[in-house]
Specification:
412 residues; 17% strand; 6-stranded parallel β-sheet; alpha/beta
Length: 412
């Protein structure tokens, strides 16, 4: 069963969330940060399940199991019992079905007026008040708990932990990460955002086994990633602008070389207003990175879209005076023609074509082996099948905002 958070995150990736739900992303990010914080504090033999079977975070250690829910209430200054009715009822329902399991239930919540690090135990009267709620959307839980009376043991296994704000939690996690052998700068600008991005992506996996992580393996994998993740998830982090600047610097080191052969893969399902925005993006890229006819290599743009959309973009590029090699002969794609070098007249500073355009699904793999790309830039939030075949430098950008894309590519 897909949990509420995972369903919201999947909808978020698919751009189906309402404005109200979009605000809830901050709460999800807080959950991912707390997940990472808990992981860093664990021993190597403990296991964390992201979006666990029980709660937001499940931790299994040699001493037992912790089931943790996270609630972020930055806009509510004062803690009130009504704000935690739902998570308490959810935990109580799980406890009712698993009374013999060695599970400790924790509600990790942030309220501005509560002392960070303090804890609260619910009283019997407070739990009784929760069980008497008449709130309509909580009645399914009340019905499930009908006749259940063993609340004393649950109260002994449950407590509320009051945590720091999102910004302060981020700082604390980065400090913890720097103690694991990462430099403070790299922890803040590379490894921390990569960790949150990875945890967010794991949370959308349907297979629970793919959502299980251990500290040593997770950190080892993290150390291998030297490029700052830029995605929908990292956009919500406090230092997003610094992350953009860091990623831009990383890309500049790749893009400033004139002689490298590059392909740019653009996903129409990922980038909004694709047919409208992409022609100008391509034009600006070509004018910046293929304006030296003696030095620059002709870039390949591979579009993940339908043929009609591709043809409309081709027409728009022609209108913008961008000469294109499409590789089509008598209605069929010809890989040899597509891969040929453009004729150049240095005397007139004229080049036959400035870029190559292909349909990614039908044509990119036909030219991949012979193209000998030095770099492939991918603008998509999906795992593209061809990625496994790429042996060159791959730069993946998970931001769909055109202005951010242009900034990262040094076009603005």
């Amino acid at each position: 069963m897909v949990t509420t958070v995972r369903r919201c995150l999947l909808d978020y990736k698919n751009k189906k969330m309402s404005r109200t739900a979009d605000y809830a992303i901050q709460g999800f990010i807080y959950q991912f940060i707390i997940t990472f914080q808990k992981l860093l504090l664990l021993s190597d033999d403990s296991e964390v399940t992201v979006e666990g079977i029980v709660e937001d975070i499940d931790i299994v250690s040699p001493t037992g199991q912790d089931a943790i829910q996270c609630k972020y209430h930055e806009s509510k200054q004062k803690f009130t019992l009504s704000t935690i009715y739902k998570p308490v009822l959810q935990m109580l329902c799980h406890y009712k079905d698993n009374t013999t399991a060695n599970i400790t239930y924790r509600l990790h919540a942030h309220f501005p007026n509560e002392t960070v690090g303090s804890e609260k135990q619910l009283t019997k009267d407070e739990l009784a008040s929760i069980l008497e709620t008449k709130t309509a959307d909580l009645q399914s839980y009340i019905t499930r708990l009908s006749g259940f009376a063993d609340t004393d043991k649950f109260l002994s296994q449950f407590k509320i932990e009051f945590g720091a704000s999102l910004a302060d939690t981020e700082k604390a996690v980065i400090v913890s990460l720097s103690k694991e052998g990462f430099s403070t700068e790299d922890a803040a600008e590379i490894f921390y955002p990569n960790a949150i991005h990875t945890i967010a992506e794991l949370s959308t996996q349907h297979d629970v086994s793919k959502r299980k992580i251990k500290k040593a393996a997770f950190l080892a994998q993290l150390k291998q990633k030297k490029k700052t993740a830029i995605s929908r998830w990292t956009k919500e982090l406090q230092n997003h602008e610094k992350l953009l600047a860091k990623r831009k610097k990383q890309l500049t080191e790749c893009l400033q070389s004139n002689v490298r052969k590059r392909a740019v893969i653009l996903d129409a399902q990922f980038i909004p207003n694709f047919e409208e925005k992409i022609p100008l993006l391509i034009k600006e890229y070509v004018e910046k990175y293929n304006n030296k006819i003696r030095l620059n290599q002709c870039p390949v743009f591979s579009l993940i879209c339908g043929e009609d959309t591709l043809n409309n973009i081709w027409k728009a590029l022609n209108t913008k005076k961008i000469s294109v090699e499409r590789g089509v002969v008598a209605g069929s794609f010809d890989a040899v023609r597509f891969l040929r070098e453009p004729m150049k007249s240095f005397k007139d500073n004229h080049v036959e074509f400035k870029m190559k355009l292909c349909n990614h699904d039908n044509e990119f793999e036909l030219i991949l082996d012979e193209a000998n790309f030095d770099d492939v830039l991918i603008l998509s939030d999906k795992k593209i099948p061809v990625e496994e075949r790429l042996t060159c430098n791959v730069e993946k950008l998970n931001t769909a905002e055109i202005n951010e894309i242009k900034y990262l590519l040094s076009l603005t």
